[in-house]
Design goal:
The chain folds into two domains: 121 residues, Creatinase/prolidase N-terminal domain (Creatine Amidinohydrolase, Chain A, domain 1, 3-Layer(aba) Sandwich), CATH 3.40.350; 238 residues, Alpha-Beta Complex (Creatine Amidinohydrolase). The chain has nine helices and 23 strands. The strands form nine sheets. The protein has a four-stranded mixed beta sheet with strand order 1-2-3-4. A three-stranded antiparallel beta sheet has the order 7-8-9, with helices on one face. Strands 11-12-14 form a three-stranded antiparallel beta sheet, with helices on one face. Strand 2 and strand 3 form a beta hairpin.
Length: 380
């Protein structure tokens, strides 16, 4: 077995949180030794909580460890690398594998002190890709909160009046992306989830998939809502996208929405354990192209059509393995993936629909809840 080393905070490092099961906001050391035993070195501030809650074999208190270092070495450690290298040698570890984002300076310092640090080429914990029943349940919880918040945003758009000037109005004021986003984010906060750059993007701006949206929202135009919160108590993410239009959608927008809907249904039918993500993506691309919606680049260098992957893994990170796109990946039972085809054209805007599924042995199971107040529809 290879010894493993992480130095990070578990608020931001999904690999570290996966290892210890405890959120700690400041960087700390995690070591999995050659026998597979797991150690963490934390400050006195976190020690009692870590002893009680962390999923490790032994918790070490940093100040006590530094005092032992000084007693043996005759001086205080000059920096983190000194006591880390000493601690690793105490565990008979001279070679470690670290995540690809391990601090470069710290790695160089450890190497100078006799510890061989090798970056992991690929997934640090490959088992993270296949979710346990408990993880699937936590993701379903996140998706439920996502759907409730999504419904609150769509309700605002549905309630808006269409002004004679073509803009949407609510309570006598123009309805803006900011107001709808604020409602969604506030709903998430009340439910214990943290919003992350919620997208409420209308009109021509929606032709840019990651444009968050700003300003007044127009009637008879696409509005993309993409909600992807992280649940505070679990660390797992939800992800859901809907495209709506308050008023009467232009015929071309209706055709785009229908092509995306058909493409998503096609992907649902193709996903199963052992299937190729690249083949699924190619089939969805071909389906939308056959409906008259090609993909390419304008003479001015603007990308249009289906310009992103069909889906991505979802769990402790918003984007994680596997991917369903141009870079091939084999789907396995237990993978949790989004299915989010989209079409984007600079002269009309964009359409995207996104739901989350669990890959099963012979198909997939929809995890996104079907709320009665949130039908999948374009026109409001």
């Amino acid at each position: 077995m290879t010894a493993r080393l992480i130095y990070a905070d578990s608020e931001r490092s999904a690999d570290l949180y996966y290892a210890v099961g405890l959120f700690i906001p400041d960087p700390f050391l995690f070591v999995q030794d050659l026998s597979g035993r797991r150690h963490m070195v934390v400050s006195v501030l976190e020690f009692n909580r870590a002893c009680r809650l962390a999923r490790v074999d032994q918790v070490h208190e940093l100040e006590s460890l530094k005092r032992r270092y000084q007693q043996q070495q005759g001086h205080e450690p000059a920096g983190n690398a000194d006591w880390m290298a000493w601690f690793l040698l105490e565990l008979d570890i001279t070679t470690v594998m670290a995540p690809a984002d391990f601090p470069l300076l710290l790695a160089d310092q450890l190497r100078r002190l006799g510890v061989v640090v090798t970056p992991c080429d690929g997934l640090f914990w490959p088992q993270r890709a296949c979710k346990t029943e408990e993880e699937v349940s936590l993701i379903e919880d996140a998706l439920h909160l996502t759907a409730v918040a999504m419904a609150s945003g769509i309700d605002l758009i549905r309630a808006a009046a269409i002004g004679s000037d073509g803009w949407l109005y609510l309570d006598g004021q123009q309805l803006t992306s900011e107001r709808v986003r604020g409602e969604i984010d506030a709903m998430l906060a009340r439910m214990g989830a943290e919003a992350s750059h919620t997208i409420v993007c209308g009109g021509l701006l929606s032709a840019d998939p990651h444009e968050s949206g700003h300003g007044p929202l127009a009637a008879h135009s696409p509005i993309i809502l993409d909600v992807f919160p992280r649940v505070g108590r679990s660390g797992y993410w939800g992800d859901m996208t809907r495209t709506v239009c308050r008023g009467e959608a232009p015929q071309r927008l209706k055709a785009m929405w229908q092509a995306v809907r058909v493409g998503q249904q096609l992907a649902f039918g193709l996903i199963a354990s052992g299937c190729s993500g690249r083949q699924i993506h190619d089939a969805v691309t071909e389906s939308m192209a056959s409906a008259g919606f090609s993909t390419g680049i304008t003479a001015e260098g603007v990308h249009f059509g289906f310009i992103h992957g069909t889906g991505h893994g979802l769990g402790l990170e918003i984007h994680e393995a596997p991917r369903i796109g141009m870079r091939d990946a084999r789907l396995e039972q237990g993978h949790v993936v989004t299915v989010e085809p989209g079409l984007y054209y600079p002269d009309i805007g964009g359409v995207r629909l996104e739901d989350v599924v669990l890959v099963t042995a012979d198909g997939c199971r929809l995890l996104t809840p079907c709320l009665t107040q949130l039908p999948k529809e374009l026109e409001l």
